[in-house]
Write a structure and sequence with these properties.
The complex is a heterodimer. Chain A is of the alpha/beta class. Helix content of chain A is 38%, strand content 11%. Chain A has 14 helices and nine strands. A four-stranded parallel β-sheet of chain A has the order 6-5-7-8, with helices on both faces. In chain A, strand 5, helix 5 and strand 6 form a beta-alpha-beta unit. The chains are: A alpha/beta, B mainly alpha. Strand 3 of chain A pairs parallel with strand 1 of chain B, so a sheet runs across the interface.
Chain lengths: 396, 41
């Protein structure tokens, strides 16, 4: 058995369908890439392939371009993941803002799916509406909102979506409207009909290989169009990663190939937005920018503040006591669980090298910190709190 | 694929690394493939 056959057999065992992503070469045509150079791929047997897949798009300079390799090697020697501000990240954001007319700020993401997912969250928070509209056949990643009517097997009447995958919650199906691409009149009519519910419209300017009809993009981008009035128009650039190719409709008109050098050769994805959207109050619940976590327990905090705000109201005293007790119970439970986990964890003997590189406190101290920051765990008191909430909300 | 051309399902991505010769070779192979399909139809 050749190396390639052996690898293909092993891939079948450990990768779904024996493939990465969704590209399949066809029966008997599978191969394993050993390396890529320029416009070519080479398999384990040394066979050369002319590559028009290009990592599903981002390798605009071809594989292993010397300038990209040199830049990556240079940076690798300095470390790559800091989770903190660094000069290249700032420079790149400035370049993206220059290149994309609608961009004032940039949030880097790990994939295009993540970028469109967060863009929709920003739109929903900014617009205070939940529904989104996308076009049939448009691909915006693999999250639950995007996997609607990309390849509908039995299309429904517009705007009903057709889920492209099992496992997508039906609740999300109710939040997505589908419009026909290149049909401005229908899109405008749907948006007008759902004016008060729509947060955003997702659109690929060049949907897959379909060229936009004359006037379609211009019509959707018109400031006085119902599209614009009804919802923030979100244009997801040609598929997932932001490739920084400048094309009419999304990037600057008439720009030369200078835009090609950015992002070429490495995957790059980000969402861009206007400052007003990024600074929108509901998104600033975290120290900076939007956060998707740490929501549990917030309602209890609000209730506590409400009852504390009226301590002299004798009718509220019982409620205040109840909420205070519930919060204390839940916090105590969370702290107790954290302590127990910390005590149960064996303390590893640390080498001199690990001590040298460690900047944190002891494992015990770290776990206590985590416990303090974690949302309270479900306890009996949470059930009593829920019943208190239900009783309270049922009051006239 | 049998002629050693890799492409996306419904797209062809072109890079700055592709030469005129690569493109000419690709067009020729596509012509031949389409001729085979047409002959079989």
């Amino acid at each position: 058995m050749s190396d390639q056959d052996n690898l293909l057999r092993r891939a079948e065992q450990v990768l779904p369908g024996g493939i990465l992503g969704s590209h399949r070469s066809g029966p008997g045509l599978e191969f394993v890439v050993k390396e890529g150079r320029g416009a070519y791929l080479y398999d384990m047997a040394g066979q050369r392939y002319l590559d028009y897949l290009l990592g599903s798009g981002p390798m605009l300079l071809g594989h292993a371009h010397p300038a990209v390799v040199a830049a990556v090697e240079r940076q690798m020697a300095r470390g790559t993941s800091y989770f903190l501000l660094n000069e290249p990240a700032i420079q790149l954001a400035e370049e993206i803002v220059k290149a994309v007319p609608c961009a004032e700020q940039v949030r880097y993401t790990s994939s295009g799916s993540e970028a469109t997912f967060f863009a929709l969250r920003v739109a929903r928070a900014f617009r205070k509406r939940d529904k989104i509209m996308k076009f049939e056949g448009g691909f915006h990643g693999t999250h639950d909102y995007a996997l609607m009517s990309v390849v509908p097997r039995s299309p429904k009447a517009f705007p009903a979506p057709m889920m492209d995958s099992a496992g997508v919650p039906h609740a999300i199906e109710a939040e997505v409207l589908i419009a026909p691409y290149n049909d401005l009149a229908t899109a405008e009519a749907l948006i007008a009909a759902h004016h008060d519910e729509l947060a955003a419209v997702l659109i690929e300017p060049y949907q897959r290989t379909i060229v936009p009809a004359p006037g379609f993009l211009a019509g959707t981008a018109r400031r006085d169009a119902p599209v614009r009035r009804a919802a923030d128009l979100r244009r997801d650039r040609d598929r997932i990663p932001l490739r920084l190719r400048r094309r009419p409709g999304i990037l600057r008109r008439g720009a030369g190939p200078g835009g090609l050098r950015q992002g070429g050769g490495r995957r790059l994805s980000a969402r861009v937005h206007r400052r007003a959207e990024g600074d929108h109050a509901p998104l600033r619940r975290g120290p900076r920018g939007h956060r998707g976590l740490r929501l549990a327990g917030r309602n209890l905090q609000r209730q506590r503040h409400r009852v504390r705000g009226r301590p002299r109201d004798p009718g509220r005293a019982a409620e205040a006591r109840h909420v205070r007790t519930a919060l204390q119970d839940r916090h105590a439970a969370a702290r107790g669980a954290g302590r127990r986990r910390a005590q149960a964890r064996p303390r590893p003997r640390r080498s001199a090298a690990s001590r040298r590189y460690s900047t944190s406190s002891s494992p015990t101290a770290r776990s206590s910190t985590i416990a303090r920051r974690s949302p309270p765990t479900a306890t009996g008191s949470s059930a009593s709190t829920r019943s208190w909430c239900a009783a309270r909300s049922s009051r006239p | 694929m049998r002629r050693k051309i890799v492409k996306a399902v419904n797209k062809i991505y072109v890079s700055l690394a592709h030469t005129d010769k690569d493109v000419a070779e690709t067009i020729e192979i596509f012509d031949q493939a389409l001729a085979v399909i047409a002959a079989g139809a």
